[in-house]
Amino acid sequence: MARRCGNRRALQVAGTLLVPLSASWLVSHHFAYLILVQLSAGFAWAGFELALMLNLLDATDDRSRARVLSLYNLLNGLAIVAGSLCGGLVLRGLGSDGYATLFVLSSLLRAAVVLTLSRGVGLRRAGEPSYGRAFLRTVSFGLLA
What is the pTM for the complete model shown? Predict the structure, then answer.
């Protein structure tokens, strides 16, 4: 998809696919459904990480690439730790009933990040398809659009 639609569109589509994943755990507790959610999460996260890395590589020159990637990994690690600590605090305050709150909160925060970053992240590519076309092509595995 990144080759056909561009890294920017791939990042936008993958980010959008990440939004409902955590809240999807609230829909059903059926084992097969949860396996499907996890498989979808794996594909969405893989696409997001790949598109993000391709964007970082495109946006940096050879001399500053190591510094930029090191900074990215540092900030990513700090965000993981901060998110885990915040989630732990919510669970501590709400008890075991806090899982549903965390799943919904996670989806809402992901949506806020995707909406904030969707406009200015990545390099625009000539002939880049519309977001809707790229999204439809991705979720239909290229069979449509």
Answer: 0.76
